[in-house]
Amino acid sequence: MHDHDLNHHHIDDADECTEALRTALAANGITLPSLGLELPAYAGSYRLSLIALGNCNTATARKLTAALRKAATQ
């Protein structure tokens, strides 16, 4: 596989993961408007597959905290 093919695979995988996370968050009533791929990470020599969670307000942070706490006790 060429470097270009590997990079494309990483982007596809990260995009799939991002959409799965977006769906799981939505199922808990949570939206992170800035959720997306961290594209500058692909430009570096390591070509990292990073997902930018972005910023959120305190209400969203509380919802996320509650969902994670609930999941941790199950």
Task: Provide structural commentary.
The protein has helices at residues 3-27, 40-43, 58-72; strands spanning 36-37, 51-52. The protein has 74 residues and is mainly alpha-helical. The protein has a two-stranded antiparallel sheet with strand order 1-2. The longest helix is centred in the first third of the chain and has 25 residues, at 3-27. Residues 1-6 have low confidence and may be disordered.
Summary tags:
74 residues, mainly alpha, two-stranded antiparallel ribbon, 3 helices, 5% strand, elongated
Compact summary:
Helices cover 59% and strands 5% of the residues. With 74 residues, the chain is mainly α.
Report the principal-axis shape. elongated
State the major sheet.
2 strands, antiparallel
Strand content: 5-15%
As laid out across the biggest beta sheet, the strand order is 1-2
How would you spell out the order of helices and strands? HEHEH
The number of helices is 3
Mean pLDDT: 83
Q: Structural class of the helix and strand makeup? A: mainly alpha
What are the low-pLDDT stretches, counting only 5+ consecutive residues below 50?
1-6
- First and last CA, distance: 41 Å
The helix fraction, in percent, is 55-70%
What is the topology?
Blueprint (H helix, E strand, L loop, with lengths): L2 H25 L8 E2 L2 H4 L7 E2 L5 H15 L2
